[in-house]
Write a structure and sequence with these properties.
Blueprint: E1 2-6, E2 9-12, E3 17-24, E4 30-38, E5 45-51, E6 56-58, E7 66-71, E8 76-81, E9 90-98, E10 103-105, E11 109-114
Parallel strand pairs: 2-11
Antiparallel strand pairs: 1-3, 3-8, 4-5, 4-9, 5-6, 7-8, 9-10, 9-11
Length: 115
């Protein structure tokens, strides 16, 4: 099983990034894909999630700025991040929840927003 996250980097405040997470090797159906983030010294938090039906949820701190989407044919989930703020700086990790309630995590990609 592999979840590979791409797209992190260094941007200035107000900038944009698009993260991608491609999954492979997961046999059972994926019911939810999500992006979490973890900043130094802080707990991991849910940023956004999308169900296999396309229903989405966002953390209050990113509503209106981030958009999660998925391409089921490519087993890939995206996170479009606009109007980035320094407090968005974190390692962003993708996760997949399957119909058998297994959770798989990707390795994370660093997002740094400079002020």
């Amino acid at each position: 099983v592999q979840l590979q996250a791409f797209g992190g980097g260094l941007v200035h405040t107000g900038g944009s990034l698009r993260l991608s997470c491609a999954t492979s090797g997961i046999i059972e159906p994926i019911t939810v894909m999500a992006w979490h983030r973890q900043a130094p010294g802080k707990q991991r938090e849910l940023v956004a999630r999308i169900t296999s039906y396309g229903s989405t949820n966002y953390a209050d701190s990113v509503k209106g700025r981030f958009t999660i989407s998925s391409d089921n044919s490519k087993n890939t989930v995206y996170l479009q991040m606009n109007s980035l703020k320094p407090e968005d700086t974190a390692v962003y990790l993708c996760a997949a929840l399957t119909s058998r309630t297994n959770i798989y995590w990707g390795q994370g990609t660093q997002v740094t927003v400079s002020s």
